[in-house]
Design brief:
Elements lengths: L2 E6 L23 E3 L15 E5 L7 H25 L7 H28 L1 E5 L2 E9 L2 E8 L3 E9 L1 H6 L1 E8 L6 E7 L1 H18 L3
Length: 211
């Protein structure tokens, strides 16, 4: 399988200031947005501005969607064949069949909805001050990691496989100073742009930070 990998340690973007980044509006299924003016988050600082908003690429929902479609069609295609094969030897009450089909559709909806919730609430945010990684565990629990943008030391990305190349998504790895945990933005759109933007934000913050 064809793969592409790129590692970028230091990037200079003198010709691409942060102010020149296009301002985009976040919508329900937005996975990549720069300077989103309509986006605010919990515990956002007074002078803190969101520079980059990320989710996993929308294409990552395709396998689960395809599985849900197959499972939704199964009762109308597969079940009649099974009942025809075993109807002569096994008598199944109609009530049991209805309950089984309802349970099947409930399970199908549960699988798709849980994956959609995971995609929707797993969010990566880059501001002029911090990098924030919000991991959705379940409806009652989320794991939030963050670090100051000035602590970013090295950024790299990799894009592996034909689909990643076609749809332009990949993993972005961020190494931070000291014993702070590293960050991984997995399967995000436009990974090269993400690396450039974060590198520029970190450089700007370090240049303006008092010694």
């Amino acid at each position: 399988m064809w793969s592409e990998s790129s590692t970028i340690s230091t990037i200079t973007m003198a010709n691409t200031p942060l102010q020149s980044l296009q301002s985009t509006t976040t919508r329900l299924f937005t996975a990549f947005a720069t300077n989103p003016k309509n986006l605010h988050f919990e515990h956002q600082g007074k002078n803190e501005t969101v520079i980059l908003f990320l989710r996993q690429h929308l294409i990552t929902l395709v396998p689960t969607t395809a599985l849900a479609v197959i499972m939704a069609l199964a009762p109308t295609i597969l079940f009649p064949l099974i009942f025809k094969l075993f109807s002569a030897s096994i008598h199944i009450p109609v009530g049991y069949i209805i309950v089984g089909i309802l349970f099947w559709y409930l399970a199908t909806f549960g699988i798709f909805f849980s994956r959609l919730l995971y995609w929707f609430f797993n969010i990566f945010i880059v501001t002029n001050e911090r990098i924030i990684d919000i991991d959705f565990i379940n409806l009652l629990y989320k794991d939030v990691s963050e670090t100051q943008i000035s602590r970013v030391q090295d950024i790299s990305y990799n894009s592996k496989g034909i689909f990643a190349a076609l749809f332009n998504y990949g993993d972005v790895m961020i190494q931070t100073a000291g014993e702070l945990p590293n960050f991984a933005f997995e399967l995000v759109p436009k990974p090269s742009d993400v690396v450039e933007i974060i590198s520029n934000v970190a450089k700007t913050e370090k240049d303006h930070k008092p010694v």
